[in-house]
Design goal:
Layout (H helix, E strand, L loop, with lengths): L13 H14 L4 H6 L3 H17 L5 H14 L3 H13 L6
Helix pairs in contact: 1-3, 4-5
């Protein structure tokens, strides 16, 4: 199985560094998954749009509803990583993901 390495900030292009810095300023942390996604700044921006959607839904829906909606979309798309993320978010919130 091929592995994609995370970016090395010191040797990354200016575009990658700018996206890295933007992520840190917006969300305050950089995970390994984000460092790997930053090999393609476009892929990282697509991933990060979930946070934009969440912020737009926040005035109308609570966290549970947002996580359930997001999990349903992820399940429909058969996207295992986000399904796992949203299941964990529900469980961490003391809720049953089923």
């Amino acid at each position: 199985m091929a592995m994609i390495p995370p970016i090395d900030y010191a040797t990354a292009s200016q575009e990658i560094r700018a996206e890295h810095d933007r992520e840190l300023s917006l969300r305050g942390r950089m995970t390994n998954m984000k460092r790997i996604l930053l090999n393609s700044p476009a892929a990282h921006r697509i991933y990060a749009e979930w946070f934009t959607l969440r912020d737009l839904l926040k005035p109308t829906l609570d966290d549970r509803a947002i996580w359930l909606l997001s999990m349903a979309i992820s399940e429909t798309m058969r996207a295992e990583v986000p399904v796992t993320f949203f299941r964990r978010a529900l469980m961490d919130g003391g809720l049953d993901p089923e």
